[in-house]
Write a structure and sequence with these properties.
Helix content of chain A: 40-55%
Number of helices of chain A: 9
Shape of chain A: elongated
Oligomer: homodimer
């Protein structure tokens, strides 16, 4: 057992990220002693998987833990940070949010442990391949977080709050916006009752190419060469979906702009 | 040797799609006799890989073939279709473009063979997993195209020109727009010299989820719940990139709208 593994850890939150983090911690021999969530049902469900106590009362969160991982939504983190750290002001308080600064906590021993991945409760992921970005206010606490992160993941980086903000913004583009392009495609196909599954080989290959080429190099399709015939025809197919039509137009113009810029820089 | 394998095939075009199609045809025992391209260099390069003749003169395209696959860009297809089919008006003329109607050819025996995938010359792909969409004007020609498509791919569908247009539009969203989201992310990261590779586990997982969940179910991030604090902060990070800021705003609003619509339909 390492020093870090002897720490008593409380997990604040029982959502997608908290669930995956909790499972990875216990699988690596860490001692999660309690789960807190607003609802007893979700706190209890995660506590059962981690074999620990749980509570739905903020006033019942244990005040004798060494390390608190706070994995709740950003707006709740802003509201609750003072109340939470007040429970045990000398402990190490760590949040897991990509876009929140470390200073959302006012306590001395504060930190960030940001695993950049899209999580769901129903499907747990292999934590080893997830890049984890760390920040602490106190140098000794970095040793603790690094020790934990190294046990959980093969890709551990230190990164300040400002850089992490940009990283998280990029993650929104690479995950949420990528996924939304597929939502829009599924919606277009639904008009003709074509199942979305037919798109999966194309999507898989699109992403596979990114392991070999830069996204700029990998780009294909009508917008690269700004083929006005095809673009005009495809715009007209979206006449009854003005939101999608607007997105289609902006994305096509942006693809073309990047292509021209890329050629100039060659 | 099947009947289809005895056909003399001419390949018009030597680009990404033509290259992959030509290689798949010869690997399945088909008889590609000639490659045409505007430039002798690219025609010759593909002809060498297919072990056949080539030409860069439209007037030198063979007039004794049974089947012509036309895999050139859409704008060229529109301009050249009449000249091309005039070379051998009784043969079967087939194009490979998702968004072009079958009637771009005026000849009697016309067809479409649309392999929905993103191709590159440098990396050949396994054709078996690529969905191929077929259309012909004459029923007997469907038998020929289906026989070829079945030899090359496990996923062969018949689809009319109107439906194929929507399919191709969806493919633009799932491939070109997905890739462009990654281009923009790479651009954002470049400000901080963070390598784009760090995003790959997130992107891989984002797409992996689509094999289990619908894209609407799979969506996460600040836009789903329209978290105004995070969205406002991320918008401000893009102040010096107004194009990306505009796309960020539209995509976030659209994600939220779909979520609300999805909940109403539940």
């Amino acid at each position: 057992m390492t020093d870090a593994q002897s720490l008593r850890i409380v997990l604040i939150g029982a959502g997608n990220l908290a669930t995956n983090l909790g499972l990875a911690l216990t699988a690596s021999g860490y001692n999660v002693v309690q789960v807190y969530s607003r609802t007893a049902a979700s706190a209890g469900a995660l506590a059962e998987r981690l074999d620990c106590d749980f509570t739905d009362g903020i006033d019942k969160i244990r005040d004798d833990a060494d390390l608190y991982f706070v994995a709740i939504k950003d707006s709740a983190l802003e509201v609750l940070s003072e109340v939470l750290t007040g429970i045990n002001p000398n402990a190490l308080w760590v949040h897991t949010a990509g876009s929140m600064p470390i200073d959302v906590f006012a306590c001395c021993r504060r930190g960030v442990f940001y695993p950049m991945q899209t999580f769901s409760k129903r499907e747990t992921v292999d934590f080893r391949s997830i890049p984890v970005f760390l920040e602490t206010a106190v140098a000794d606490d970095m040793d603790i977080l690094r020790s934990i992160a190294d046990d959980l993941s093969d890709k551990v980086y230190e990164l300040g709050s400002d850089d992490r903000k940009l990283l998280h913004l990029s993650a929104v583009f690479c995950c949420n916006f990528v996924n939304h392009c597929c939502t829009m495609a599924a919606d277009i196909l639904s008009d003709k009752n074509i199942p979305f599954d037919v798109m999966l080989p194309l999507i898989d290959r699109t992403v596979e190419k990114l392991h070999t080429f830069t996204p700029l190099e990998a780009q294909t399709g009508p917008a690269v060469r700004y083929d006005e015939n095809v673009i005009g025809m495809q715009m007209s197919l979206l006449n009854h979906r003005p939101d999608l039509q607007h997105i289609y137009e902006l994305m096509s113009k942006s693809i073309h702009k990047y292509k021209i810029k890329g050629k100039k820089e060659e």
